[in-house]
Specification:
Layout: H1 2-14, H2 16-19, E1 25-29, E2 38-42, E3 51-55, E4 63-68, E5 75-76, E6 86-93, H3 104-107
């Protein structure tokens, strides 16, 4: 029974549903200290130094550093998921056009 559960979970993450978790849009902030100053933008339009807001349940789309949230100053990679509350991330490496990060949980089973 447990094996069937794991197999079903793996199929879910490897299938098309797992790829849908990768973001296409993010909330880019005008000011890093103001969570309400954001605008919705495509991840391809991000550039180095932009600050983005990622809330619980969202996947981080690019490499960066946490400037607000816990743990502050921690590096983040594409595909990491925000588990609780929110993070404000300063973009260090903008995502490549046409490539969407696959969540880490989905990559672990490939």
């Amino acid at each position: 029974m447990f094996r069937n559960f794991i197999r079903g979970l793996r199929n879910l993450l490897e299938g098309s549903r797992g790829r849908e978790l990768a973001p296409t849009h993010v909330r880019r902030l005008e000011r890093a200290d103001d969570r309400l100053s954001g605008e919705l933008t495509l991840i391809e339009r991000l550039s180095q130094g932009d600050c983005i807001l990622c809330v619980a349940g969202e996947v981080i789309p690019c490499r960066g550093v946490v400037v607000d949230g816990f743990p502050r100053g921690a590096p983040v990679r594409p595909g990491m998921m925000v588990v609780a509350n929110y993070l404000i991330v300063r973009v260090e490496e903008s995502p490549k056009a046409g490539r969407r990060p696959v969540p880490r949980a989905a990559r672990a089973h490939r």
